[in-house]
Amino acid sequence: MHTNQISLARKILLGLGAVLALAMLSGCDTVVLTNLTPASLPENPSQIYTITLRVTAKNDGVVAGTVKPHIVVDGQIFPMNKSALAEGIYEFDYQLPTGRDQVAYYFLVNYDYESNGSRVTRETYTEATSAHIVHRYVLSLEVNRGPVGARISVLGRGFTPQDVLYFDSTPARTVFESPNSISLFVPALEPNRNYKITLGSSAGTSPVGTFRIDPSNLSVAPSSLALRTGERQPLTFTVPNAAAPGGLLLDVTTDVPESVIMPEVIVPQGQTSVTITVEGGKPGTGSLFLKGYGAGEVNVPVTVTAK
């Protein structure tokens, strides 16, 4: 009989334990914790970063006004403040110590739960997670479409003179302006289509955005050149629309580089044409080429003869 009483008591205790365990598990399911903080945070000069949590009650048992979210970071517990963004969203501003570029944390939430006239305090928490501070990032392209040769600015942080911007896999001429700004000249690629722009350097690649190359026409006068060695002749390039801020680069190439001496061709901002001086070099016959205009390429025949 004594043994049976012990067995009965054990069964009762086990049953109570199961009920309590079930209650604890159901308590974890009464609220949902959603981390709204990105895994990567752009660096800022104050080194203060906002960590955001959304707390959602799943049933009416959660007592209104009793939800108390906390964040646990660096072994310390800090209360979170209500956000002005929306109901149920809480924030905490964390100042990252000098020399660190990562913060690890988790959320801990206490609240009161009421059921069948009984009110208890419950606790739930999230798994540990982390956010990485990005010292180099791209904010935006100045514009998302334009013709071949247009100069386009890119804003961001952490740029270096070694950075190169790519249209798909084609490198574009890239100009370093400051750690917060670089620009590119739209390369001579097929118009009427979109290209994925990426930023490449020794640190890896970063997505920038999508750019559409629009078609454009260009005329050259005269339409051909006949020079003697050392002789000079003006050559005028005309585009249909005024060049945007930064100017319009006309990427002129030639198959007789030793026969043609000429400067870089850039239509100034607000202008529709530019005139340069071409000088004859070594005797030879070939052409000047501009890709990406009209039917795809503009060809200017060049003949240079000896004096």
Please describe what this structure looks like:
With 307 residues, this protein is mainly β. It folds into 3 domains: 25-134, Immunoglobulin-like, CATH 2.60.40; 137-214, Immunoglobulin-like, CATH 2.60.40.10; 219-305, Immunoglobulin-like. Helices cover 9% and strands 54% of the residues. It contains 1 helix and 29 strands. The protein has one helix at residues 2-28; strands spanning 31-35, 40-42, 48-57, 68-73, 76-79, 81-82, 89-95, 102-115, 118-125, 129-134, 137-141, 145-147, 151-157, 164-167, 170-171, 173-178, 181-185, 193-201, 204-214, 219-221, 225-228, 232-238, 248-250, 253-254, 260-261, 265-267, 273-280, 284-291, 297-305. Strands 2, 4, 5, 8, 9 and 10 form a 6-stranded mixed β-sheet that branches. A 5-stranded mixed β-sheet has the order 12-19-18-14-15, with no helix packed on it. The protein is elongated, with a radius of gyration of 34 Å. The protein starts with a helix and ends with a strand.
Q: Helix and strand layout, with pairings?
A:
Blueprint: H1 2-28, E1 31-35, E2 40-42, E3 48-57, E4 68-73, E5 76-79, E6 81-82, E7 89-95, E8 102-115, E9 118-125, E10 129-134, E11 137-141, E12 145-147, E13 151-157, E14 164-167, E15 170-171, E16 173-178, E17 181-185, E18 193-201, E19 204-214, E20 219-221, E21 225-228, E22 232-238, E23 248-250, E24 253-254, E25 260-261, E26 265-267, E27 273-280, E28 284-291, E29 297-305
Parallel strand pairs: 2-10, 12-19, 21-29
Antiparallel strand pairs: 1-3, 3-7, 4-5, 4-8, 6-7, 8-9, 8-10, 11-13, 13-17, 14-15, 14-18, 16-17, 18-19, 20-22, 22-27, 23-26, 24-28, 25-27, 28-29
